[in-house]
Structure formats: C-alpha cells, structure tokens
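Predict structure. Chain length: 261.
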Amino acid sequence: MPKNDQIIYGAPCWVDLTNTDIEGTKSFYNALFGWDFADMGEDFGHYNIITIGEDAVGGAMQYSPEFMGPNPINAWSVYFSAPSAEEAVASAVAHGGTVMAPPMQVAEQGTNAVVFDATGAEYGIWQPDQRVGFDRWGEHGFPGWFEMQTRDFDASVAYYSSVLPVELGDEPMPEGMSYKTLNINGQPHAGIYDATTVMPESVPNYWTIYFIVNDTDTAVAIAQAHGGTLVMPAMDSPHGRMAGLTDPAGAFFFVINDDES
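Prediction complete.
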C-alpha cells in the first residue's frame, strides 16, 4: 500500500492502546506484528510511538489511575481526522456526546481530543499538523478497517452521520443483521455493525480495529503462544479470513488477512 500522507477529514487516521502493562505486552505485539515501541519521554507522558521500520502504526500508553480514573483500561482507540478539534468536539456535544479529554495541542504534531458518542462509545479526534496519522494502512501490522460494535445501531448511525462528513453505505449482511459503512467520496473508511445479538450487555459500545496480517491462522497461533487469547475463532468473510483476539492485558482487536493476498 502507498504511504498514508493524504489528509482525509472524517476518516480514521490514528490508533492507540491504553494498557495496564505496556512493558509486558510489547513482546506480544512484536512477535505478532513486528512492532517496535519508541518511548517519547516524560514530556509526553511516556507515550510510545509504535513503528514498523520507519513507519508509524499508532501509539501506546500505560494506564494511569491518577489521570484516567479508577477503572483500569485495556483497550484500543480510534481517532478521526478533523480540520478543527474544537469544532469537532462542539459538534459531538451538540449531538449528544460528552467530552472525556478536551482539545490539547501535541507539540507540532497536531491537536487531539477524546469524546464519548451519544451511545457511550469512546473515540478520538485528531487535527493534523505535522503528523497526518499512521504512515501506512492495509498491509501486515498496520490498520486495515475500523468498526463500531453497537447495541444502539440506529442511534450510532444517526450520530456518526451527523458529526462526520460521511455518506452512509449499505454492506450486504445475512438476514436479521445490519451494517452501514461510513463513506467519503464514495470510498468506505469505517463501518457500524449491529452487534445486539452477539455483544454481552456488560460490554459498552466500542470502536475496534482490524489489523492486517499475512496469514490469519498463523497470527492466531503466534498470539496464543505469546499470552494472547482467542475470543472469536478464525472464520472466512467476503473481505478475508478474520479472528478476534485480546492481548495479554485484555485489549481486544481483530486480525484479518488481505483477501487479495
């Protein structure tokens, strides 16, 4: 895939991991995806940039009860590109969202913010400056797709079609299941899945990431050998063979092979 150097407002552009044991999970992700982690130092709260070679995949940070509240967090987050973080936050609030972290400039890289949507799902906003986002997508170890898992399908669709500059698309699904894609200039960039029948009531609505792997079954075996847990067994889909995993600390994500590989 080419370098991801084009700003597409409204599209996912960055991912990061909040984890109760970042140091302990680095070896897991290195074995699975070939990731390296660069600690940005105390001035940046020891935020890590995840890389493959010279290309950035996303970020990772250690959970801190002092700054993040008393409930431990082990989860991946998705950030959407916006021309103005301030305006994106204002739009989120106007459509029923709430602010978790107000806009904050990150050196010369850009400005970020974190909000909860109208159904309680958390997502990030990124106003790019020097950093557009992840450097590549759609190849091994990089993000390939982003999906809202929701029990409030209609509310989620209404919210994101209001706060993001997207058009809605229909994804063919088996009878009784619903899926909408979030399209920009005719191209799908993320999806919203009606997970009512499969998601436990105790799990809040959330965004998840599909990371591309060369071979899904091999990736599952590597993940399990390094302390990961298989949550959704490997299965074939129209877009590739996929599986759901958690890292050793419990953060959930999908792996999927490129169906053209």
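Summary: The chain has two domains: 12-128, 143-257.
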